[in-house]
């Protein structure tokens, strides 16, 4: 951290934290931030220990698949990063796992409201019970595209990515069992990592953020079912965006604040104004290995005047608004065979794109499409090119990909990087012509079309690595040498 901390912030934070605690906190702001990753346990079947992976330092204690690294490598250089083998995520924000493990035990319809770039959404999707649907939303279009990419790489089929503002969810009354709201904030917890957070801070900005957070919560609250769970989090430490807003949710919206079981040795700090609210959790630099973070879990109270019937979340209109353009079950059997457990899916063709949606979740997806701007849903299996169906990159990333449907070629590190740069590959002469799945360290990277002397690269153009100078790196046991 190079920029001086505003004196006004120092005065306020010292009063809030106390002189001794504040001194410890301020000193930590000038230390280097930690680097942490979270494994995709559905793709990386073996969870490496620090003794097995030289880049690992220690585990993140509140996340079962989280690890601190000894230093920050060039993640862009790692093919397994692009394949969705892990996500680079700030350690403190992995605390979401504690909330979900303690309070979500049955299949749910969940919403991550402010989800980009995808850290909490990928984490939540790994933790939600089978049969759950996750709606991963981001209001800002450019950030929503990044979110869609990261969710596709993570590979879980039961995800819908949307691009909407909180007020757009108004028609979805009592639709969600779980809503995660990692709201935009003043960013005090990111002072060590982001100079803009320091230079842009002011008490006026804190007040603007606090009011905006309440507007967001008020907009989305009707979409939470009575008895449903709201996770409220920020990356700031002041009481106005944290404790005061949690108290406001409880008093004004009607919620019960839920406690979490947090071992003392983690260094997590409770309420900074316990006379007003308890069962809230602060991560502060100097007390935990991570950046500043705040989290609270609340349950929406029941109201006897509300109709709680389950069918309120299912569309009464049996025909999707684009229904005239969708043809069901016209997909070739060959394409259906590209998915494991294909009998669990409904297949739709729309605009020359073949999509598979889990049959048990399709009614919810139809409601979402009726009211929201959907960028990505479930699995895009294939796209029509000319008269042929071409397997999509979404399929290659999917956990439901039937790898036995395609010839598979294991690439060297140099070949894998060339593929990610969207260069032409030369495959062994004995590889069959047609669509081929290329892998690195056993993990799918995407498809090529083998035409004989060369293989046309089908990696998404907008995702390709553009840097020409990369330091070879592979986190999870792949070899960087041929």
Number of helices: 13
Structural class: alpha+beta
Radius of gyration: 24 Å
CATH architecture descriptor text of the largest domain: 3-Layer(aba) Sandwich
Global outline: globular
Question: How confident is the prediction overall: mean pLDDT?
Answer: 92
Q: Would you give the CATH topology of the largest domain?
A: Rossmann fold
Contiguous low-pLDDT stretches (5 residues minimum) are 315-324
Please tell me the total number of domains: 3
Q: What's the total count of β strands?
A: 22
Largest sheet: 9 strands, mixed
- CATH class of the largest domain equals Alpha Beta
Tell me the helix content: 10-25%
Strand fraction band? 15-25%
Distance separating the two termini: 40 Å
CATH homologous superfamily label of the largest domain: Vaccinia Virus protein VP39
Model description:
It is globular, with a radius of gyration of 24 Å. It is built from 13 helices and 22 strands. The strands form 4 sheets. Strands 5, 6, 7, 8, 9, 10, 11, 12 and 16 form a 9-stranded mixed β-sheet that branches. It has a 5-stranded antiparallel β-sheet with strand order 13-14-15-17-18. A 4-stranded antiparallel β-sheet has the order 2-3-1-4, with helices on one face. Helix 1 (about 5-15) crosses helix 2, helix 4 (about 95-105) runs parallel beside helix 5 (about 120-125) and helix 8 (about 205-220) packs parallel to helix 9 (about 245-255). It has helices spanning about 5-15, 20-30, 80, 95-105, 120-125, 140-155, 195-200, 205-220, 245-255, 335, 360-370, 395, 415-420, and strands at about 35-40, 55-60, 65-70, 85-90, 110, 135, 160, 175-180, 225-235, 255-260, 280-285, 295-300, 325-330, 345-350, 355-360, 375, 380-385, 390, 410, 435-440, 445-450, 455. The protein is α+β, with helices and mostly antiparallel strands. The chain has 3 domains: about 5-30 and about 90-300, Vaccinia Virus protein VP39 (Rossmann fold, 3-Layer(aba) Sandwich); about 315-360 and about 380-395, no CATH class; about 405-465, Archaeosine Trna-guanine Transglycosylase, Chain: A, domain 4 (Roll).
């Amino acid at each position: 951290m190079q920029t001086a901390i505003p004196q006004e912030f120092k005065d306020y934070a010292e009063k809030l934290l106390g002189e001794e605690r504040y001194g410890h906190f301020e000193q930590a702001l000038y230390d280097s931030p930690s680097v942490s990753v979270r494994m995709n346990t559905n793709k990386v079947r073996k969870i490496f220990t620090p003794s097995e992976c030289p880049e690992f330092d220690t585990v993140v204690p509140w996340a079962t698949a989280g690890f601190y690294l000894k230093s920050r490598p060039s993640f862009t250089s790692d093919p397994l990063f692009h394949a969705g083998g892990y996500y680079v995520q700030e350690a403190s924000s992995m605390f979401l796992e504690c909330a979900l493990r303690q309070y979500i035990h049955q299949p749910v319809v969940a919403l991550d409201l402010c989800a980009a770039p995808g850290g909490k959404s990928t984490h939540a999707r790994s933790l939600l019970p089978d049969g759950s649907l996750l709606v991963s939303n981001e209001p800002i279009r450019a950030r929503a595209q990044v979110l869609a990419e990261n969710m596709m790489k993570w590979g879980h089929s039961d995800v819908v990515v949307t691009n909407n503002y909180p007020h757009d969810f108004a028609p979805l009354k009592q639709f969600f069992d779980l809503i995660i709201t990692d709201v935009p904030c003043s960013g005090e917890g990111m002072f060590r990592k982001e100079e803009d957070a320091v230079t842009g801070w002011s008490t006026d900005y804190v007040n603007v953020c606090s009011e905006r957070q309440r507007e967001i919560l008020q907009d989305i609250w009707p979409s939470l079912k009575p008895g449903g769970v709201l996770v409220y989090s920020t990356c700031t430490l002041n009481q106005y965006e944290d404790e005061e807003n949690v108290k406001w949710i409880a008093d004004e919206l009607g919620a019960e604040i839920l406690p979490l079981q947090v071992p003392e040795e983690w260094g997590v700090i409770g309420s900074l104004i316990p006379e007003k609210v308890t069962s809230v959790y602060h991560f502060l630099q100097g007390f935990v290995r991570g950046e500043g973070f705040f989290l609270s879990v609340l349950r929406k109270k029941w109201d006897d005047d509300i109709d709680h019937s389950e069918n309120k979340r299912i569309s009464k209109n049996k025909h999707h608004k684009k229904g005239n353009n969708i043809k069901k079950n016209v997909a070739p059997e060959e394409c259906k065979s590209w998915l494991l457990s294909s009998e669990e899916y409904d297949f739709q063709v729309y605009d020359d794109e073949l999509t598979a949606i889990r049959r048990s979740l399709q009614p919810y997806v139809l409601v979402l499409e009726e009211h929201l701007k959907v960028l990505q849903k479930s699995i895009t299996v294939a796209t029509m090119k000319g008269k042929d169906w071409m397997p999509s990159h979404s399929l290659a990333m999917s956990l439901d990909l039937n790898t036995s449907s395609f010839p598979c070629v294991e690439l060297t590190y140099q070949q894998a990087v060339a593929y990610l740069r969207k260069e032409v590959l030369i495959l062994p002469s004995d590889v069959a012509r047609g669509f081929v799945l290329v892998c690195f360290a056993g993990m799918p990277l995407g498809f090529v079309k083998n035409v004989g002397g060369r293989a046309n690269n089908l990696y998404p153009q907008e995702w390709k690595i553009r840097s020409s100078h990369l330091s070879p790196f592979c986190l999870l046991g792949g070899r960087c040498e041929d």
